[in-house]
Amino acid sequence: MKTNFIKNIKRLVSGGTSKGNIALTVMGLIMLAPVSSCKKSFLDVVPDNVSTIANAFVSKTEAEKYLFTCYSYLPIETDPTFNVGLTASDEVWVEDPANHIRSTNVLQLPRGFQNSSDPIANYMNGTRDAVSNYKAIRDCNVFIENVSDQTKVRDLDIDTRERWIAEAQFLKAFYHFQLFRAYGPIPIIDKNLPIDAPIDQIRVKRRPVDEVVNYIAGLYDQAAAKLPLTIRNEGSELGRVTKAAALSMKAKLLVTAASPLFNGNPDYSSFKNKDGELLFNSAYSAEKWQKAADACKVAIDFCESQNIQLYTFPTPTNPLSQTTMTQMSIRNAMSEKWNSELIWGLTANNNIGYNSFFQSMCAGQYDFNNADAAKSANRPLLGPTIKMAKLFYTKNGVPINEDKTLDFSNIAELRVGTHADRFNIKEGETTARLNFDREPRYYADLGFDRGVWYMANSPSRTDEDTWWMKARGAEVGQSSPIPIAGFYMKKALNWHYEWATVTYINYPWPEMRLSDLYLLYAEALNEAQGPVADVYTYVNKIRARAGLPTVQDSWSNYSINPTKYTTKEGMRSIIQRERAVELCFEGHRFWDLLRWKTAGIELNGNVTGWSINENSPDLYYRERTIFSRHFVVPRDYLWPIQENDLLVNQNLVQNPNW
User: Fold this and answer.
1) Per-residue pLDDT, 79
2) pLDDT value of residue 552
3) Could you say which of 372, 448, 493, 572 has the lowest number of CB atoms within 10 Å?
4) What CATH number does residue 73 fall under?
5) Which of 452, 487, 509 is the last residue of a domain?
């Protein structure tokens, strides 16, 4: 524990800070040390260092420091070595033969190294590249208990007191949610116990899934009632939670709870506590989907009332083609800081150090037609797979294996970019058939060999004759290796990045944005009522921003399965693919695959990429196997609890098959 704390401090100091982030990182880490003990069980509900805690609530200034401690446990999503949702998904793959990054922990999850003796990404106790969510909950409880006491923090006005308590309630709900989606039925820590509490109270047990969900939803409701509508003091408070965030995260919780993993899952019909209490409700409930849909619509209506809207790229001084304008709207929905679509952006644990590491590791910032830039470049090690590239639609808005007008049977077939292709592919250059005739999100989100990559510092100042990528073996050189599959995460790199000075633009991690909420609503409503009008409406809003026809037009006119969108099952497939494409590289897909119970299919099989060390296009564009993945069903759908914790607390039961 001490090592992790020191490591975070070092990374914080080396990385710098950003707008609205100083308090949430520096003060949070400073406060983290005295209030947390390394010797206690992850589920210890008895606070230690009582004298230190008492001193933390003598004044408004000291109490606010403690609030920042509660924020300091937020997940480190901008570091792929911590971000399970990204790194363990089928969107990307990491290879590190030179061992420039850690070769253990989260990076080993997709390689099948999860275990119960020392679990990877242990969200309960915070080991092996995870945050200790139960410590976070305990500190939130300490804060709520003390700030709720009117005799403490006497210089705190009532409005601020209520807001701060609501923030802690939101964070407490979120940390429980982090645990719930990984472990399922978890112990609920509603309040901390006194030091002299009897041992039978301290040894908490797991609670049934429905009880956990209702508890977390109740916390979000309490928080939403007192949280501010918007952040007004943007200079110091960006990243703190609002009512929109609370309503949206509650909606996400309820969609997760209504999903197949937790809603009538027969795999866990006999999963019980030691006293015989069932932990999963084996009966499927369509009502849960309707409840989730209602929560999504409430969140959407409120967000839109606060002028949260799908991001569109403003007209620049130098004219751009409509092709590039559409791509910039797509790219910047993730990486343009504090854009109009962002509902909740993480800034705690998201300073320049983390953020630049994410961008340098994931987004190709070299190998362009600029030799000097290539010489000084960093080393991206994580990149999209060919499977991810195949998931994007054709230019007609349907999957490549469904388009009746375009042939993608040979994705490696060589073609030369034409003048008409010039905003997507370098004119006159040879690349693979896979890179032609694709939807705008393909070109907005992926960097690939001979692909165009428009940036703010375009040498032509427009998207004519702008940056384009060379990504074949000798063109790049051993000092700047290509991501293992040959693709780059263009979407993750802020468009103001400076090649020459290697200057990164920090942006908040999009934990929740409006397009995510739209798709959650469409999914829940489709499951509850079938493909009614609103299902199409909210999917089509996202497709319109992406420059695509409506679902109805695309499937009716271009798909070999023209009526697919008219059934619940067909729309389910369409919505799930929309989530994969629209939210790619934002850490959602892995958790989606778990809750949908499709991980057994999607996370098994070969990871493939191009033959990146070859120089000629006919050799480079050969699909090769990088790794063969194995996902054990049903074991891997829930995280293992560490064996030692089961020995310490004999009321706990292990997740099945671990």
Assistant:
1) 85
2) 98
3) 372
4) 1.25.40.390
5) 509
Q: For residue 401, give its domain range.
A: 322-509
Residue 345: the pLDDT is 95
Please answer whether residues 67 and 32 qualify as being in contact, where contact means their C-beta atoms are separated by less than 8 angstroms: no
Between CA 170 and CA 157 the distance in angstroms is 20
Residue type, 183: Y
Cα–Cα distance measured from residue 368 to residue 50, given in angstroms and rounded to the nearest whole number: 57
Whether residue 505 is contained in a domain is answered as yes
Q: Which residues of the chain fall below pLDDT 50?
A: 1-40, 100, 364-378
Residue 656 lies in a domain: no
Region of residue 276 (phi > 0: left; psi between -120 and 50: alpha; otherwise: beta): left
Buried b (16+ CB within 10 A) or exposed e, 59-94: ebeebbbbbbbbbbbbbbbbbbbbbbbbbbbbbbbb
**564-577 confidence digits (pLDDT tens):** 999 999 999 999 99
Q: For residues 259 and 594, give the distance between their C-alpha atoms in angstroms, rounded to a whole number.
A: 9
The tally of domains found in the chain comes to: 3
- Judge whether 207 and 188 are in contact, CB under 8 Å: yes
Cβ density class 629-644: b for 16+ within 10 Å, e for less: bebeebebbbbbbbee
CB atoms within 10 A of CB 650: 10
376 and 326 together in one domain: yes
Give yes or no: residues 226 and 154 share one domain: yes
Cα separation, 470 vs 27, whole angstroms: 44
pLDDT value of residue 43 = 62
Q: Is residue 392 part of a domain?
A: yes
How many residues are given for the chain? 658
Q: Which two tokens stand for residue 390?
A: 């195949």
- CB count, 10 Å around CB of 13? 13
Question: Which sign, positive or negative, has the C-alpha torsion 219, 222, 226, 231?
Answer: positive
**609 backbone dihedrals φ, ψ, rounded to 5°:** -160, 175
Domain of 543, CATH number, reads 1.25.40
Lookup: tokens for 497? 């990045």
CA distance 263 to 241: 29
Contact 249, 220 (CB under 8 A): yes
Q: Which residue's entry shows tokens 């590190």? A: 96
Amino acid identity of residue 522, one-letter, is: A
Judge if 191 and 298 occupy the same domain. yes
* Residue 228 sits in the same domain as residue 296: yes
Give per-residue burial for 18-42: e unless 16+ CB within 10 Å, then b: bebbebbbbbbbebbeebbeeebbb
Euclidean distance between CA atoms 196 and 181, whole angstroms:
32
In a shared domain, residues 477 and 447: yes
The position carrying tokens 């619940």 is: 568
Q: Are residues 328 and 422 in the same domain?
A: yes
Residue 352's H or E segment, with its range, is: helix 352-362
222 and 299: one domain?
A: yes
Last residue of a domain, one of 509, 530, 558: 509
Same domain, 488 and 558: no
Contact 500, 231 (CB under 8 A): no
- The answer to whether position 37 is within a domain reads no
Q: Is 647 exposed, middle or buried (0-12, 13-18, 19+ CB in 10 A)?
A: exposed
